Amino acid sequence: MESNELSTLIDGCRAGDALAWEAFVRQFQGRMFALAYSYVGDREDARDLAQDIFVRLYEARAQWLTGDEFLPWLFRVARNRSIDFLRRRKVRTPAVTVDETAVAELADPAPSAEARALASDRHGLLHAALRGLSAINREIVVLRDVHGLPIQQVASILGIPLGTVKSRASRARVELAERVLALARGRGGV
Amino acid sequence: MSGMTCDTIRAAALDPGLQPRAWMRRPEVDAHLRCCDDCRDWLEAFGAGEHLWAAEPADTFADAVLARTAGVDALLAELPSLAEMDPGPGFAERVLRATSRNPTAAGWIVRWADAWRAVVRRPRFAWEAAYVATVCWVLIFGNPVGAWEWSASNIGAVARERLGGPVEELRADLESWRARWAPEPAAAPGAARQQADAVPPALRAWQAGTERIQRGAAYVADALKHAWTSLGEWVAWLVHEIWPPPAEPQPSPVRSTQYFDSPLRPRFPFGARGRLRSLST
Questions:
Q1: Which residue among A125, A146, A180 sits closest to B80, beta carbon to beta carbon?
Q2: Looking at the structure, do residues A38 and A76 belong to the same domain, yes or no?
Q3: B104: nearest CA in chain A?
């Protein structure tokens, strides 16, 4: 999305424009749902959490940041809501509750059935591997490598030093790769 | 060894900005891989999933390693595709419905309620609440174990009571030694005031506040006790009024000793007794 387009959307939402808000929801629903899924690991919970995030955003629309500060702020709000959600659920990191069938059935907008199955399998594998990471490593990988945030913004969102993010990011990638391979071998060389 | 560590090898293999293909051809890396079984196994295991993303021919050892690590780049290239997921049909409508029900920004009551709920949801809230309650309890009502004879707060009194003689003797000896070796100067008239002034003002204020709180708590407790007693009496009176106790049966007038003096007694203008009396006379 172009930055001008995003700025227009943000201004409309801040002004209370219902159409702008609907466009914003449709534009960001995939990202928020993916982020929520990376925290809770369950589609239904992720839908509830993503809706909760949008409601929170709507309530605080007068305080939305603009420009380059919007996306980090958005991710910070989403992260805080996710942590609240996990506290409510009394499960901080569902690191071992990997539902293989649910992971394999992840929806993916692939055009063909074969490509869809392949992509779904890849995504399922990656999600399962991400689930196995520690909470902080998973957050770093999700924010930096999945959502492509700069490392300074990742450090700001997570509230940890920049050097820690750098070192942890490197280790997290190694750990993720090892887990992907272990899972791939476990599935018989997908 | 070549100066390369296993962590360096693995981190470099996964670093997309390092161009691992050129990096892996460096002689020190190749030397490390030849002598380090762990790294070789790791890369071999890593290559087991290479066909997920890429498959490259492997003629030489370096090429084989490169083919195995080529999947790492693809792994990192694959991760951004997880940034968006389909939440399913009707999700946007669901969100719009939820937000249309709440068209205005939350008021301060709602915000305070949310903040309070967030505080209560904190894992350590129960411990913190228990701690604060305990401190308040001790400040208002005093030490809860003070009534226990051998509690720490009573141990001085217990010792004085049970070991009164030896303690007094010891104190007298101590005083006499002190008078002999270091006679005390005469107490100044304002000594008590100076001693009181030596107490920090904050501590004095704290003590005064605590005493006030304790006095207030005692008044409140007395008032509550009095109110409770009054309430009990009033309830007893009310019960008595609504359901009066069964009255004692009245004694039968015939069996009463006052029967003959009672105005209820029938008077016979000319009864048998009078006739008898007249007959006898």
A1: A146
A2: yes
A3: A59
My answer on whether A139 and A85 are in the same domain is no
Q: Are residues A154 and A188 in the same domain?
A: yes
- Mean pLDDT within A108-119: 49
Which of B82, B101, B110, B125 should be substituted to probe chain A, the one whose Cβ sees the most A Cβ atoms within 10 Å? B82
CA A164 centroid distance within chain: 21
Mutate to test the interface with B, among A59, A168, A175 (most CBs of B within 10 A): A59
Q: Which of A58, A11, A49, A15 is nearest to A31 (CA)?
A: A49
Question: Are B92 and A127 within 8 A, CB to CB?
Answer: no
Look at A21-35, A157-171, B178-192 and tell me which has the smallest mean pLDDT: B178-192
Q: What is the domain count for chain A?
A: 2
Quick check: B48 contacting A, CB < 8 Å? Answer: yes
Same domain, A49 and A135: no
Range of the domain at A151: 109-190
- Angstrom distance (rounded) from CA B196 to CA B200: 9
Q: What is the pLDDT of residues B20-45, one digit of tens each?
A: 566 667 788 778 878 887 777 776 66
Residues A187, A128 within the same domain: yes
Calculate ∠ Cα A107-A113-A115, nearest 5°: 80
Of A28, A63, A92, which residue constitutes the final position of a domain? Answer: A92
Rounded Cα distance between B198 and A25, Å, is: 67
Q: Which residues contact B14 (CB under 8 A, 6 or more apart)?
A: A170, A173, A174, A177, B72, B75, B76
Given A92, A120, A135, the domain boundary residue is A92
pLDDT in tens, A58-100: 988 888 888 888 889 999 999 999 988 888 776 445 454 545 5
Question: Looking at residue A111, what is its pLDDT?
Answer: 44
ipTM of the complex: 0.73
A183 & A113 share domain = yes
B51 and A189: CB-CB below 8 Å? Answer: yes
CB proximity B121 to A under 8 Å: yes
**Which residue in the set B48, B86, B102 is minimally distant from A185, CB to CB?**
B48
Contact state of A171 with B121 under an 8 Å Cβ cutoff: no
pLDDT surpasses 60 at B51 = no
Cα gap B213→A15, rounded to integer Å: 52
pLDDT tens figures, B138-158: 887 777 666 666 666 677 777
